[in-house]
Amino acid sequence: MGEAHYGKTLAEKQKAERKGRRAEFWARFILRMKRYKILEANYKTYWGEVDIITVHKGTLVVFEVKARNSLEECYAALQPVFLRRIEEATRKYQASRPELQNLPIRYDAVFVVPPISVVHMPNAWISY
Q1: Using CA atoms, how far apart are residues 97 and 67, in angstroms rounded to an integer?
Q2: Integer Cα distance of 55 and 35 in angstroms
Q3: Which among 28, 86, 14 has a CA at the least distance from the CA of 78?
Q4: Could you give the angle at the alpha carbon of 117 between the alpha carbons of 27 and 75, nearest 5°?
Q5: DSSP assignment of 18-72, as one string?
Q6: How far is CA 36 from the centre of its chain?
């Protein structure tokens, strides 16, 4: 989900965007290795952006990807206001796809920390 870049220069914003896109690449790579079926990446709606939408073992699994300097910083970046927007976007997405409407939803996160550690956190948050 796009985060505010208040007070940053254009170069800093672009650097943050590249870092986020690299993290999402690694997240998708790991999820494919775990046999998650990726339906969408960077799914944008009026309500917000969902980084990755997948189906795995009969569950619609939605991912927020965070790239920070530590796992603690990644987890702290899961702000409730953004998570609620992800949930709303997910509900709209699910409602628009008849084949997904009866699937349970799970919210996971993938944390990427230097030098290259990718951590999948199932059930990163429970729906607000």
Answers
A1: 30
A2: 9
A3: 86
A4: 75
A5: HHHHHHHHHHHHHHHHTT-EEEEEEEE-SS-EEEEEEEETTEEEEEEEEE-SSHH
A6: 14
CA-CA distance, 109 to 126, in Å (whole number)?
Answer: 12
Query: Domain range holding 84?
Result: 10-125
The reported pLDDT for the residue numbered 5 is 55
pLDDT digits (tens, 9 = 90+) for 45-101: 888 889 999 999 999 999 999 999 999 999 999 999 999 999 999 999 999 999 999
Considering only CA atoms, which of 99, 92, 7 is closest in space to residue 47? 92
The two beta strands, 105-113 and 117-125, are: antiparallel
Domains: count for the chain: 1
The first and second tokens of residue 59, run together, are: 């569950």
CA distance 3 to 35: 29
C-alpha span between 20 and 28 (Å, rounded): 12
Q: The CATH number of the domain where 73 resides is what?
A: 3.40.1350.10
